[in-house]
């Protein structure tokens, strides 16, 4: 019998390529058919290994979920960026490689990011999801998030609806 270690830990600069690959796979899976193709490619290509290396080295809060020696997912989080929403923290991104979805790893990554925010004094938090991304909106509802705001975001010529889910301690 073999045991595979599953851990959530702060990202290191050495993880930049793996986080970039995870971002690429997760975004293609989540947004194919939602975000127009050319716009999706631009968004993915902006976040290559150098971008992640710089973000990690500059101290951005990025946690990775590792399955053995493979980065299976990541979360990027910090202070809430939407001043109109009165929540302290925000999870900016939470993504898993497609083959690791539906196994409870997203819950573990979410819980770790929420705990880290709370330990930093950010007791309430928000996360945004595109309305058309049903797996994400269902995931956040299942985690107890309540919908607190709606907005839209432009992707080239297309405007997409997004919703904010919030949690308070």
UniProtKB/TrEMBL annotation:
Keyword Phosphoprotein found: no
Listed name of the protein: Ribosomal protein S18 acetylase RimI
GO molecular function, one term: acyltransferase activity, transferring groups other than amino-acyl groups
PROSITE patterns: GNAT
Taxonomy, superkingdom: Bacteria
Domain N-acetyltransferase: 6-169
Cellular component, GO annotation: ribosome
One Pfam family from the record: Acetyltransf_1
Keyword line: Acyltransferase, Ribonucleoprotein, Ribosomal protein, Transferase
Organism: Rhodopseudomonas pseudopalustris
Record carries keyword Transmembrane: no
């Amino acid at each position: 019998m073999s045991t595979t270690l599953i851990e959530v830990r702060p990202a290191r600069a050495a993880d930049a390529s793996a986080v970039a690959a995870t971002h690429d796979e997760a975004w293609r899976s989540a947004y194919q058919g939602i975000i127009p193709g050319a716009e999706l490619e631009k968004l993915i290509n902006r976040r290559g290994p150098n971008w992640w290396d710089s973000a990690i080295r500059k101290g951005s809060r990025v946690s990775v979920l590792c399955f053995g020696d493979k980065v299976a997912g990541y979360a990027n989080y910090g202070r809430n960026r939407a001043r109109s929403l009165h929540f302290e923290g925000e999870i900016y991104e939470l993504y898993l490689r497609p083959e690791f979805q539906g196994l409870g790893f997203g819950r573990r990554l979410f819980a770790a990011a929420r705990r880290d925010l709370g330990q930093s004094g950010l007791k309430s938090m928000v996360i945004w999801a595109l309305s058309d991304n049903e797996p994400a909106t269902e995931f956040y509802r299942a985690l107890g998030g309540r919908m607190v705001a709606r907005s839209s975001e432009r992707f080239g010529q297309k405007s997409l609806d997004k919703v904010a889910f919030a949690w308070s301690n």
